[in-house]
Amino acid sequence: MMSEVSENLASLKKKIAKIAVKWQRNPEDVALIAVSKKQPDERVRDALEAGHREFGENRVQEAQGKWPGFKSEFPDIKLHLIGPLQTNKAKEAVALFDIIQSVDRPKLAKILAAEIKAAKKDLPVYIQVNIGEEEQKSGIPIDEADAFIQECREIHGLTVEGLMCIPPNVEQVAPYFALLGKIAARNGLRKLSMGMSGDFETAVQFGATSVRVGTGVFGTRTS
Fold first, then answer.
1. Which residues contact 153 (CB under 8 A, 6 or more apart)?
2. How far apart are the first and last CA of the chain?
3. Residue 101: in which H helix or E strand, if any?
4. How many Cβ atoms are within 10 Å of 17's Cβ, its own excluded?
5. pLDDT at position 223 over 60
């Protein structure tokens, strides 16, 4: 008997594939990142036993208590850090995560680069862009994005794989996703992490290569 989580995953993946085909994209080019923050271990295990392997966490400390055991049991897990990263947690983040999607300021880029080098680890990063220019949100300002991408690559030697954004909570998110796509294209970046439970369909339309879905996979958080 399928668990609720495995049923949700199957339904979401089918929906993502259908949207991708509608917009003449290859469904295999769109990854589903299951956002597991504050989810109990049994729900995460349900997802793993259903064959899912890409997960997103917001906080280093929470992830440290959850993922080392799962990673030893399921070594092909790909764990994304999708929340803000404090510089004093950079070493722990490098040790645990496989992709860091929230690089958003020069100081963090410099420290991360040093920790990645010290760990001798191939760790790709995404640059988080404050696409709605909202004071309360993390991300490099739009007008500084090009220079920051160049700095991360050429000065710090980071492997910049793509861009990430969290658009404003508005009805029409398409312009924000389109803008992130333009920034990525002019910097030769092919990966776009954008779209969550409420707007992932629009994100796929505008080129998302990964969408971050929590409640749609796991149901309502328990805390």
1. 160
2. 27
3. strand 99-103
4. 16
5. no
pTM across the whole model: 0.95
Joined together, the tokens standing for residue 94 give 């490098």
Q: Give just the sign of the alpha carbon dihedral 61, 54, 219, 27.
A: positive
What pLDDT was estimated at residue 219?
85
Structure tokens at 108: 């963090």
Phi/psi for 169 (5° steps) reads -85, 75
Phi, psi of 171 (to 5 degrees): -70, -40
User: Under CATH, which architecture does the 4-218 domain have?
Assistant: Alpha-Beta Barrel (3.20)
pLDDT band at 1 (very low <50, low <70, confident <90, very high): low
Q: Is 54 helix (H, G, I), strand (E, B) or coil?
A: strand
176-212: b (≥16 Cβ within 10 Å) or e: bbebbbebbeebebebbbbbbeebbbbbbbbbbbbbb
What whole-number distance in Å separates Cα of residue 182 and Cα of residue 42? 40
Residue 74 CB burial class (10 angstroms; 0-12, 13-18, ≥19): middle
Residue 74 tokens read as: 């399921």
